[in-house]
Description:
This is B9 domain-containing protein 2. Keywords: Cell projection, Cilium biogenesis/degradation, Cytoplasm, Cytoskeleton. It is found in: Cytoplasm, Cytoskeleton, Cilium basal body. It is a single chain. This protein is mostly beta strands. 8% of the residues lie in helices and 51% in strands. It has helices at 119-128, 139-142; strands spanning 2-14, 21-28, 33-37, 41-43, 54-67, 75-83, 89-98, 104-115, 151-166. The strands form two sheets. The chain has a five-stranded antiparallel β-sheet, with no helix packed on it. A four-stranded antiparallel β-sheet has the order 4-2-6-7, with no helix packed on it. Strand 6 and strand 7 form a beta hairpin. The chain is globular and about 60 Å long.
Amino acid sequence: xxxxxxxxxxxxxxxxxxxxxxxxxxxxxxxxxxxxxxxxxxxxxxxxxxxxxxxxxxxxxxxxxxxxxxxxxxxxxxxxxxxxxxxxxxxxxxxxxxxxxxxxxxxxxxxxxxxxxxxxxxxxxxxxxxxxxxxxxxxxxxxxxxxxxxxxxxxxxxxxxxxxxxxxxxxxxxx
Length: 175
C-alpha cells in the first residue's frame, strides 16, 4: 500500500484577542486510510507570553498513514482555547487544513473562526465569558452544514510539516 508520513510541529498561534492559549488538534482521514503509527489527536500546553502577540507551542506531530486510495486525504483540525486567570477554558476558534499532497517541507497557516451566536449570546459572552460551541465538531472539516453558520474570524495557527510519500509510484501516482 502507498504510505504518507507527516512529521512536523504546531508552531503556535497569533491574532487572537487574548494570551494564555492552548490547542486541541486531531486528524481526520477517509475510509481507505489507516494510521500505522502516531497519535490521532493531542493537546498542546498553555502558553502565556508576557510581551509577545503570539503563543508558541512547538508541539510535535508524527503520523504515519497507509492508504488504498487518494479519496479522503488527511486533514488536521484544531480547536484553540483560552485559559483565564481562574483556570476556566473558553473556546476561541475552530479551524482545519489539508495535509499537503507534495513531499517536502511546508509552512502552513490555518485560519480559525468561532460561531457568532445570537445577540443575547454575544452580550452574555462579553460579561460572563463562554460562548456558543458546535454540538458536532465534525462540521469543522466535513463542511456539510458549515455554510449555515454565522461566524467570527479569529486568529491563525502556524504549522511546519514535512511530508514523505512512499510507494505511490507503484500504484500509478506521480509524486
